[in-house]
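Suppose a classmate hands you a notebook page containing two proteins, each written out with its sequence and a corresponding row of structure tokens. How would you begin to make sense of it? This section walks through that situation. The first entry is reproduced here exactly as it would appear on such a page.
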Amino acid sequence: MKHFCMAPFVHVQKNSFNEFNPCCMFNKRIYHKHDSISSAFNSPENLELRKKMLNDEYIDGCEKCYRDESLDKISYRQRFNDRYLDKGYVENPKIKELEIALSNKCNFKCVDCNTKFSSSWYNDDILLGRTFYTSKGRDVTFSIKDEDYEYLELNEIKILGGEPFLEKRYLDIFKKIDVENISLFFVTNNSIFPSIEWIEQLRKFKNVIFNISIDGVYDVAEFVRYGKKFSKFENNYDKWISLNIKNMKIVPHYVFHSLNILNFDDTINWLKIRHPNENIKNVLSYDFLMQPDMLNLSFLPEECKSLIIDNIENFKDEIKSFLNTNQYQKEKCMELLKYYNFLNLRIDGPKQIERLMKCLRSILSK
């Protein structure tokens, strides 16, 4: 089936705004407010979503997976189906995977982020007139209630942020569940190397995927993930590699957008030094940014897209395919330049970024 996904039958996400979602890729609000993971899992909204899935309907909110599949990239939809489709969970849904973010506490202001996911963005969001923020800090009270256990058969817990290592309450959750039989997917900006208490708790999980957001190296890294000191990131990354945790896999994750695309080859070279005996395509996790639109590479003019292709050696086919998913959008590109000028007020744009922006200015000035 083209659109069917097992996520509504086996998965729940709860973000730092206390909102439930079928998964982190789902780009639409369909759930009403719920006070437990089981009430969201068995809600009328989720039951309706399951019905649509079984009818193989196109789902508003699932566009990210549809797009990934059109680019021959393995999607979350495919991942859920590969894991659970023939396990009986259509007839007997169970929460096999749980995704939680306890707060938006974060020490970075990444260019593709906002207050919803980073408390550090609050003041700048006000300056930019971005009205989706509600408060500087968000804290979610999370607990597993008695009624939840009927539906919980956890295989995996996914931890998002903010920056999770700023939130010790995750340790309290880990101590209350049978982590020895659960896999952990942990997303971090790698600015903090955790305490022994954290590391010992990580060792207890069945296995750990340690997803490290990278998005560039050197001056580009410090520009696009503002607050990052790349020398510290580098030191922490090397510590993780040398740390002897047999159940842990280190996965650097790169999100392509208009302000880091020309830094990608440098990032690959940096990673190859640290993973000399591995195929880099088996090491790196990657994604193409869709929103905000102004950072979406596919809306750039053809001249800028050609500049990118001519100056990229790695993953060229994948990048070219994404660039071709949309046509040039002048208004979005004008918004990008305006945003870039704002970002330059806090730190000068690196040469690699400036090179693409110079191309864009030239097109927009005609």
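The notebook's second entry, a different protein, reads as follows.
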Amino acid sequence: MNIMERIKSLLPHGEAKTIAELERDCGISNGTIGKWGVNTYSPTTNNLEKLADYFNVTTDYLLGRTDNPFPPELHNAKLALYDSVFAGLDDADIDALKQMAKHLRDKGNM
């Protein structure tokens, strides 16, 4: 997956946000991100940092150097939350909670 595909995958599916709106939100010059998609231009460090901060992912994820989008500290916090929520539950209860969470997430995307 190239950088343009990763950026598009990170855009909220419930919103019709365009690349131009993303550029405005991040303070990136109009048309800059589109140039990265044709592999003619490479993003600057500054623009990569802006996008990583905007999406709360690592620059390594945007560059395709890792498939884990989350910074290590966020990943560790999610694991701790997961452990505290699911501790002591059996598989059926965990599946029920996952289904409820999926329903809530899907409801928000309608």
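A careful reader of the second entry would note: The CA atoms of residues 50 and 104 lie 29 Å apart.
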